[in-house]
Design goal:
Elements: H1 2-27, H2 33-51, H3 61-69, H4 71-83, H5 91-110, H6 115-144, H7 150-172, H8 188-207, H9 250-262, H10 273-280, H11 284-294, H12 300-316, H13 326-333, H14 338-349, H15 353-367
Helix pairs in contact: 1-2, 1-8, 2-4, 3-5, 4-6, 4-7, 5-6, 6-7, 7-8, 10-11, 12-13
């Protein structure tokens, strides 16, 4: 009974923390994808903590299992929204979640009539959930180096490791005799402890003061006002506004501007922030802070792409380069392949590189312009 009491206590505390996260998110009126998915993930945590507790009625499994089995999908979407600034929720994401719920519901009902077939389906679903956990881990690791947000970098790996471990535990149970851990079984207390640790870490992240994305003024040209940013031509991210309370070394920003606009360092293939920090002879964390807090960029690749796309735009609108292939222009600007270039270019300009070139050259042919002005930033 002692272990059962500890188990139930941990689950009660876990549910309380997850509910507090939901309330704090609602109080802040956060409507971002990450916030909404975070609330869904927290609600799933409450649901899982309760339904896998000792003495939870087994008769409720037929409706509990479908929702529990679909939680790895919610976590995968949350990881995408949290760690990929370009991620956008699509309708097929919701359809995927509903499909897993429906499929698990069918498996649960079929367990009593076709146990062998249902067991095979459960193992297949477990493999799918493990694939989602792996995809979330890959997403985190792949984008970790380019992440410029200090708080997100500190929390992402630890949070992801624990969540993936929990998902692997749930998904691995699909290879057992039933799709989830038996409530009250020996695996119940460790599960409760892991849930509690996850809830505490998520709570610590959620309770930190919200970082506003718009706290300072930006001039109509897209640059910070001159009295606060005599830093040359380094482009401020127009989608966010720099916090005026943040103090960033203006000399560092000028040196960064020189590397980008004069030496065109962004053209180097595979340029990483560590190499750029070495060129500037500053610690990597200082450069991250300068680009993030001083210029408003959350991702190093997005910072580089602003220069690269502007470089490509100038080349595409240059009549003397009319016959130069788009791929060559993309590679010269620093992109390593045509796919990422096309996506980044269209996201920035709203048109494909080919459409942009056709419109720009057509306009120049009409007005008689033969040479575009070359100025980046």
């Amino acid at each position: 009974m002692g272990l059962t009491a500890i188990d139930l206590g941990l689950r009660g505390a876990t549910s309380g923390v997850f509910l507090l996260i939901i309330l704090v998110t609602l109080q802040r009126r956060a409507t971002s994808q990450q916030a909404l998915l975070g609330m869904a993930l927290s609600a799933g945590g409450v649901f899982y903590a309760i339904t896998t507790a000792p003495y939870f009625p087994k008769s409720a499994w037929w409706w509990v299992l479908p929702i529990m089995t679909a939680q790895p999908t919610v976590f995968w979407l949350w990881a995408r929204a949290a760690f990929d600034d370009d991620f956008v929720l699509r309708r097929w994401h919701g359809a995927l979640w509903l499909g897993i719920v429906a499929f698990t519901f069918v498996l649960t009902l079929g367990w009593f009539y076709w146990p062998a077939l249902a067991g095979a389906g459960g193992r297949g679903l477990a493999l799918f959930n493990l694939a989602l956990a792996l995809a979330a881990a890959v997403q985190t690791i792949r984008t970790w180096r380019a992440d410029l947000v200090a708080r997100r970098r500190r929390l992402r790996l630890a949070m992801l490791a624990i969540n993936v471990g929990l998902i692997v535990t749930v998904a691995g149970a699909g290879f057992a005799a039933i799709p989830v851990l038996v409530p009250g079984a020996p695996g119940s207390l460790p599960t409760a402890f892991v849930l509690f640790v996850v809830a505490i870490m998520a709570g610590l992240a959620a309770m930190q003061p919200a970082v506003p994305e718009a706290t300072a003024a930006i001039a109509p040209s897209g640059r910070r006002e001159a009295d606060r940013a005599p830093t040359g031509r380094v482009p401020v991210n127009p989608r966010v506004v720099v916090d005026p309370r943040v103090v960033v070394d203006p000399i560092l920003l000028r040196r960064l501007d020189h590397l980008m606009t004069v030496e065109r360092t962004y053209r180097r293939e595979g340029l990483a922030i560590g190499a750029l920090a070495a060129r500037l002879d500053v610690p990597e964390h200082r450069l991250r802070q300068a680009i993030n807090e001083g210029l408003g960029y959350r991702n190093f690749n997005a910072f580089l792409n602003r220069y690269r796309i502007e470089d490509a735009r100038l080349a595409l609108s240059d009549v003397t380069q009319r016959e130069v292939p788009v791929l060559t222009i993309a590679m010269d600007a620093g992109f390593q392949s045509i796919g990422p270039f096309n996506r980044a270019f269209k996201a920035e300009t709203g048109v494909t590189p080919t459409e942009f070139r056709r419109e720009a050259l057509s306009l120049q042919d009409k007005v008689g312009i033969s040479e575009p002005r070359r100025e980046i930033g």
